[in-house]
Amino acid sequence: MTAPTKPPADSPANASSDAPLAQLLHSTVIDWFDDNARDLPWRRPEAGPWGVMVSEFMLQQTPVNRVLPVYEQWLTQWPRPADLAKDAPGEAVRAWGRLGYPRRALRLHGAAVAIAERHGGDVPTDHAQLLALPGIGEYTAAAVASFAYGQRHAVLDTNVRRVFARAVTGVQYPPNATTAAERKLARALLPEDERTAARWAAASMELGALVCTAKNESCQRCPIAAQCAWRLAGKPEHEGPPRRGQTYAGTDRQVRGKLLAVLREAHTPVPQAALDRVWHEPVQRARALDGLVADGLVEPLPGGTYRLPLT
Ligand code: SF4
């Protein structure tokens, strides 16, 4: 198949200069969202800004079905940021369970402490104040401001980036890391009206999660199939650098997970020998443990024992 002509990757021209197309995308995707949005606890009014923030930390690298039980338990244990701030960071790591990438638990704890100290215990509404919280990056600040407070921000997660790459830019996958061109495109596509912009952020994300998935996209039930540049171009194959894999077995991440599982179960300091049992290869095991200590996820104690961090 001959590769069709497509707009340059760094040009959002077909969005920014085509306001009717953008408006059509907004109304179509938002209408679809109204009918198809999943009923998720962090989308309910009672979740509040803290519930939204917790969910955004958890969902960044973990699927919804694994997040749901931990989210519910977390909000029961710490219904407000100040409740979490009062507990040791190690308790956040313990409650994080098997969600993976546990530094997120420490970052969420750090954000809760800052919210308690600087903002009277309320998640700030202002985007700059959100961004200034420890552990909160561009994505999370935009997501909380948009989903919790209905503000107008470009919210670029992997699902949204994939939808924009396909529907607008006309390529199968976005670059491995978010580019300036993608941010520009996202801003160009953002509805002017604040409320519509917030709906659009949630709706385009849901479309990527449920329909325009990384593999086996469901174009036959996609509300923007008629406008999708990649589909209309005959779905040209991905031409960019290889996509990052998600290997886990045998990696240091797996060993770290096993070591942390032992420490999460224990409520008293754990001797080195108990940690040594979780992985057969001593060099990799030591490297993984050193990494956990360096990341502040594990506290070494005199006498060669370890625990989750108290401070
Ligand atoms: S038509 Fe297919 S590829 Fe295009 S946005 Fe919809 S699901 Fe994705």
The value of Rg in angstroms is 22 Å
Helix proportion range: 40-55%
Residue share in β-strands: under 5%
Shape category: globular
Order of helices and strands: HHHHHHHHHHHHHHEHHEE
Number of H/I helices:
16
What do the pLDDT scores average to? 92
Care to describe what's here?
It is a single chain. This protein is an all-alpha fold and 311 residues long. 55% of the residues lie in helices and 3% in strands. It has 16 helices and 3 strands. It has a 3-stranded antiparallel beta sheet. Helix 2 crosses helix 12 (194-210) and helix 10 crosses helix 12. The chain is globular, with a radius of gyration of 22 Å. The site of iron/sulfur cluster has 14 residues, from helix 10 and helix 13.
Brief synopsis:
The protein contains 16 helices and three strands. The protein has 311 residues and is an all-alpha fold.
List the helices and strands and how they pair.
Blueprint: H1 13-16, H2 19-36, H3 48-59, H4 64-77, H5 81-86, H6 89-96, H7 103-118, H8 127-132, H9 138-149, H10 158-169, H11 180-189, H12 194-210, H13 229-232, H14 252-265, E1 270-271, H15 272-276, H16 282-294, E2 299-301, E3 305-307
Antiparallel strand pairs: 1-3, 2-3
Helix pairs in contact: 2-12, 3-4, 3-9, 6-7, 10-12, 14-16
